Amino acid sequence: MSQPNSLNRSLVTVLLSPAVPVIIFLIFLVIAGGLKYGIGRQDNAHVNDSLATAANALARELEQNFRDHLSALQRMAGRREAQPGLPESAWRKDARQYLEDFGTYQAIEWVDRNNLIRWVEPMDGNRSVLGYNVAFSLQRKQALERAAQTGQLDISGAIELRQGGSGLVIYAPIGRGTSNAGFIAGVFRMGKLIDFLDAPRIRNAFRVVILQSGDPAYQLNTSGRLSTRYAATVPVDLPTIDWAIRLEPTQRWVREHLGASAWVTFFTVLLMGVLVSLSVLLVQLVLRRNQALLRTRNELQQEIDQRISAQSDLARLESTDPLTGLANRRFFMEDLAHTIGVADRQLRQAGLIMVDLDRFQMLNDTLGHQFGDELLIRVSQRLSRLSDERVMVAYSGGDEFLICQQQVDDIDEVINLLGQIQQAFIEPFEIQGQRHSITATMGVAIYPQSGLDADMLLRHADIALYRAKDSGRNTYQFYTEGMQNREVMRLQLDKDLNSALSNHEFVLYFQPQLDLATMQIGSVEALIRWQHPQRGLLPPGEFIPLAEESGRITDIGRWVVQAACRQLADWRDGPLNHLRVAVNLSGRELDDEGLVDHIQEALTRNNVPADCLEVELTEEIFIANLERNLDQLSRLTELGVHLSIDDFGVGYSSLAYLRDFPVDLLKIDRSFITRVTERHDDAVITRAVINLAHNLGIQVTAEGIETEAQLNFLKNHRCDMAQGYLISHPLPAKDLEKLLARGITFEDVTNTP
Ligand code: C2E
Ligand code: MG
Ligand code: MG
Predict the structure, then answer these.
(1) Is the pLDDT confidence value at 713 over 90?
(2) Does residue 508 share a domain with residue 473?
(3) Which residue, by CA, sits nearest to atom 19 of ligand 1?
């Protein structure tokens, strides 16, 4: 393709060169010159032919005239010979007759045998020749003798006449040999001689030169300017003399015979050359203009192309999330609507999976946005590997991804995809040089069972996700009809929370914590319950997240601290005065600047020593916003309040923060304890946490102890305290008092060193 193109281009470049019209003009010039030369040659030949024809005609005419004269003179000589005694007067009469007949003679003479002119007619102008010897030269003498001898005519050729001027004499012998009686001589003036011919016509056209033996003997000049290029010489066939006639044409005659065709052709062709060159020049200009237009069009096209690609880039950007490179929510929703349409026609199902990264917000807040962005990119990379012609992966914003599975025939296909998504999170993510184990929780809605349009499916997947989060992380939930009802209930609950505080619907339950060294209850954890007017006693999991979302947690938290202090004050003067009470604080509560002041005020108001109060914070809350927390927590410990980390082990792998925080206690999460006696990993972790805490001078509580085996394990590994249903469920204060009064015993708890 490119070779012919470049050939075409170079051809066009050559054709558009300014040399082309010049070359074309030069070609025409050469052709014109050639044609002119050829035609000129033809013209020359024609002129020469015409000239030769004219010269020939003249010579023949001259010959004819001479022959007439000769025969006339011979006749006269014959008569003289026949009548030698003819008197002079008769001769003169005859001669006059003769002169009149021809009119061209200067004179008619009788020359006797001694070559003397005896008679001359007319006498006027010729009288001086009488007695003149015409054999004035040897050559003449010999010629005359020869003529007398042979009886042949003699022509003198051009000579100086006795009468003056140039002339010619024809001698006709009267008798021959011894009987010769002289000559009848006809004298012509050369000028007159030419009068034989069509003098004016000839004179206008030519200079006539009579050559005698090759030399000019006489010339008849013309008035016109002569051409130097042409001349024609033809011999004149006359007796005894060697004559030729040369015609030299006038320029005018030549012009007339040349014609103008050579020059006309020359200029015509030249004009054509000019016209063709100008046309080519014009075509070149048009072509160049076209080329320029074409270039402009190409540039324009390029610009249009660039714009189109910019627009498609824009369209792509509009449909793509710039950070993750995945489809964005808007595009996903459009596609989902389309997918639903197709599924409807094909009588198939479609799955919508909403994926939420566990603890992302907290990670983002603590490790920075850059970390968060990198994590999102890595997760996107893994999830996008799942996308194919049936699966679309999109980033919805925050820590949420949307996945749509098309052409679903069996719900197992969705379950299979969910498994693949979970697989994608198994390998830890390496970010900023560290490996982080991230899990995801998913909500699933299926078309058409879970909703008939995209928005409905999305809402229901969201509800399912919420449920999945509720039931613990790293799992998934399909949307079911009941969820909708639960969602409605949740909203109702949120409304009811408004009045719960003022209606005194909250109560504190207390769960004892067993000191494993003394086997005594040294502290209790205060756990809130909501005595809901319609729904009965609700555990904190039902309403604390709602309260956190709405911000009502701050007031609830203050109430808890207040209630706990009141309870401490209650127990102060009784048998339970040694108890420490632990309260749970959520992250939102820690954000409250007035928190420490409020706790201090509650302690003071109830006259409770600060070291009777313990504050539990989850590991996640601890880490979130390290700087500000450090300040709040330092103020708390300065106050004398104990600080413990709740649900330890499910959060960060980095434990460096333990060094910097004034932590008194770690509470190992229930998830490790539940199978601590069965799973080697859990046992190892639990032991490691205990050792680590002890090395840092921190005490350890184990949560969720339900079996004596667990209790034994912990006791044997020198865990400081234990909490769980085995010891006691959370109880109202009164019940706790009774329980502690009764005493708790563990028969099977062993003490191995
Ligand atoms: P948490 O602080 O880790 O409290 C321990 C939870 O484990 C309690 O659930 C308790 O009833 C439960 N538990 C204790 N021993 C066992 C056991 O042997 N087996 C099992 N399966 N569970 C056991 P609860 O009372 O439902 O509280 C749940 C969570 O709600 C608490 O977890 C705490 O994070 C939060 N919470 C409770 N009260 C408050 C409060 O006053 N304020 C705030 N912000 N959060 C609270
Ligand atoms: Mg707790
Ligand atoms: Mg806990």
Answers:
(1) yes
(2) no
(3) 704
